[in-house]
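Re: weekly structure request thread

Next one in the queue (218 aa):
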Amino acid sequence: MCPVSERFSCADEDERGRGMEAAVTALRSGKLVVMPTDTVYGLAADAFDPAAVRRLLRVKGRGRDKPPPVLVAAPTTLDALATKVPALARDLVEDLWPGALTLICRQQPSLTWDLGDNRSTVAVRMPDNEVALELLRRTGPLAVSSANRTTSPAATNVDDAEEMLGSAVQVYLDGGPTAGEAPSTILDVTTETPRVLREGAIELARLKEFDDRVELAT
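Done, posted below.
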């Protein structure tokens, strides 16, 4: 028998509360959850549960060569996940978090997780969405990728996410349509020259205001 997904509207306070409880329970059980963010909808798994992360990658149709980013509830969590964080990254976090900027940093060597073949790096973001932040405060860091199959556009509403992912997801949190369709901008700060690996909601010109060495990856 196929598992039955649950869907909760976060516009209703009581239903949002029930949805949060269901999402936390699902994540702690190794299941997947769809959640709203400030960019597009995200497909979430417990970052410290290797089987759950593998399930996330399998549902998306993605290999270990594309590990998911990790979403956090507070800027201070960055130091728990990353080491040798450069001054540029700290300046960006101060001004642009919460927001649509994902930072690729050196991973803390003590972390006991398996996000995929990340070459000792970790991609971290703090989303600017209260539903997402509430869930993250309850669960801790989550591995989150866009809520879609790899060959399809990212979902900007829960209906699109549910149509693509179906019963592979245990809980759907409906936060309404997203503000736009652009994903987060991904910036690699592990090298001397910071590189934008994906230009998204935050433009290159904005990042250059912090460091004019920032460039688009070729």
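The two ends are 47 Å apart (CA to CA). The chain has a mean pLDDT of 96.
Next request, please.
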